[in-house]
Design a protein that fits this description.
Length: about 280
C-alpha cells in the first residue's frame, strides 16, 4: 500500500501536467478575450479589468461573423450527415459481405488519409473552377468528405464486425428483410459507434480551414475559421487580437460542451470495437 501511493501521486501529477499543457492555450485565449481592447498586449494571468467589448465587436461592424457561423453549421452538418450515410453502408458491406480482397479495399480506404491535404488542393481547385463550384457549399463539403469518410469507415467497420451475425439471422427468420434487419437491429446496436463518428466528423469539419480558404473568396460564403483569420481592426490596419480571441472562444465553447456532455459515448465508441 505504501508503495502504491507514490505511484498514484505520480500518475495524477502526470495527468495534471498533460491537462495543463493542453488547456493552457485555450485559457490564454479566453483570458485575452475578456481584456479591454486597450489592454490586449497585457501579459497578466487574469485581466486587470474584465470587459465584454471584444465579444460585442465580433458580431458588429463588417465582420460578417454571424453569417460565417451559419456557413460553418451548414458545411459541418452536411459533411457529417453524408459521411454517416455513405460510411455506414460501406462499413456494413465490408464487415458482413465476403468478397475477394476485402481487407485490401479497407486498407486502401484508410491509406487515402496518408496523402497531405495540401497536395490535393491544386487539383481540386482546378476541377471546381472548371465545373463552376467555386464559392459554393459543395466545394467545401465534397473535399471534407474525402478526409472524413476513411475514418468513419474504419470505426464503423470495427463496430459492425463485433455484432453477432445471429442477430440479423434471427430477425430475418422472424420475417424481416436484410434491409429491415439492418435498420431495426444493427443500426440501433451500433449507435455508440455511429454517434462517435458523427461527433469526430463534425469537429473536424467545423475546424477545417485550408479548403474553405481556398475554395471561397466571397465574404458571404466564408466559414467561421476563415472569417476569424480575416478580421480587421477599427482602422482596417491594426491587429484585432482581442476580437479574434473572442471569436475563437465563441467557436470553441460549443465543441467543448458537446464533448464534455457526451464524453462517455465517445470513449465507448472508440473502445468498443477493440476487444472481443
Amino acid at each position: 500500500m505504501t508503495g502504491s501511493l507514490p505511484k498514484r501521486l505520480l500518475s495524477y501529477l502526470g495527468l495534471a501536467v498533460v491537462a495543463g499543457y493542453c488547456l493552457a492555450p485555450f485559457y490564454w485565449m479566453a483570458v485575452s478575450a475578456f481584456r479591454r481592447p486597450q489592454d490586449q498586449f497585457d501579459n497578466s494571468i487574469v485581466p486587470t479589468q474584465w470587459s465584454w467589448e471584444n465579444f460585442h465587436a465580433v458580431f458588429s461592424g463588417d465582420n460578417g461573423f454571424g453569417r460565417a457561423l451559419l456557413n460553418s453549421v451548414i458545411v459541418a452538418g452536411c459533411t457529417t450527415a453524408l459521411t454517416l450515410l455513405i460510411g455506414t453502408f460501406t462499413a456494413y458491406a465490408l464487415a458482413r459481405l465476403d468478397f475477394r480482397f476485402k481487407n485490401a479495399v479497407l486498407g486502401l480506404i484508410v491509406a487515402t488519409t496518408m496523402f497531405p491535404g495540401i497536395s490535393q488542393l491544386v487539383p481540386l481547385l482546378k476541377l471546381f473552377t472548371d465545373i463552376e463550384w467555386i464559392n459554393t457549399y459543395q466545394a467545401m463539403i465534397v473535399p471534407s468528405l474525402g478526409f472524413a469518410l476513411p475514418l468513419s469507415v474504419w470505426l464503423l467497420t470495427a463496430f459492425f464486425r463485433q455484432l453477432p451475425r445471429e442477430l440479423e439471422q434471427a430477425a430475418m427468420v422472424d420475417g424481416c428483410t436484410r434491409g429491415q434487419a439492418f435498420r431495426k437491429i444493427i443500426v440501433p446496436l451500433a449507435a455508440p459507434g455511429v454517434f462517435t463518428t458523427a461527433i469526430l466528423t463534425f469537429i473536424a469539419a467545423w475546424n477545417e480551414f485550408l479548403i474553405a480558404l481556398s475554395m471561397v473568396n466571397k465574404k458571404e460564403m466564408q466559414t467561421a475559421t476563415v472569417a476569424i483569420s480575416k478580421f480587421t481592426g477599427v482602422s482596417g490596419f491594426d491587429q484585432p487580437f482581442g476580437t479574434q480571441m473572442a471569436a475563437g472562444v465563441v467557436v470553441t465553447v460549443p465543441l467543448i460542451a458537446v464533448v464534455l456532455v457526451f464524453q462517455r459515448r465517445i470513449v465507448a465508441g472508440l473502445t468498443a470495437g477493440g476487444v472481443k
